[in-house]
Fold:
Amino acid sequence: MSDTLHTRTARPEDGPRLYALDHAAWSTLSEVAERSAPPTADSTVFDERHRPDDYLVAEDGGELVGYIRLVPPTPLPSNAHVRQISGLAVDDAARGRGVGRALVAAAVERARGLGARRVTLRVLGHNTPARRLYESAGFVVEGLSPGEFCLDGRYVDDVLMGLTLDG
Ligand SMILES: CC(C)(COP(=O)(O)OP(=O)(O)OC[C@H]1O[C@@H](n2cnc3c(N)ncnc32)[C@H](O)[C@@H]1OP(=O)(O)O)[C@@H](O)C(=O)NCCC(=O)NCCS
Structure:
């Protein structure tokens, strides 16, 4: 991991860079929705349901190189002890240097700080890089929906992973 790598909460002005990063990182390895429109001067990932506080970003040498989004899975009080990782991407040029690992660790720490007992996520069965990353951070497979998505003409499993936090 680079000495200059650090994570922080996103700010509103990160919106255009996050949009461009997300657009460039799109592939059916990790995404089930259509690709977003190409970035314009007004593009941002933020709206009423996607707030800067929900995102942690990674900066290396002052450049934003990745993000992770951590949200309550539902608004229900009965579900309030859980946080869900609902987005993660690292700039292609910055991959393989520990950025993803740092973002997952930061999200788990954020969840712990919020008093969560569990962190969950969904990952496509064929997304080996992401599955290895989550496994190495302690997440385990808790469920699987076989053939949930049809991507590029092939049926792909949706895998539910979870991490139970101590205490
Ligand atoms: C998955 C992703 C976030 C990993 O980011 P990264 O910064 O390259 O990951 P790191 O360098 O921190 O790697 C941490 C661990 O992840 C796993 N990993 C990362 N890339 C991998 C690859 N290409 N193949 C297999 N395992 C990989 C390894 O276990 C690695 O540990 P190691 O270096 O000790 O072997 C990145 O590939 C990405 O943005 N992918 C596209 C979006 C995506 O898949 N998001 C997840 C949606 S659920």
Notes: The radius of gyration is 16 Å.
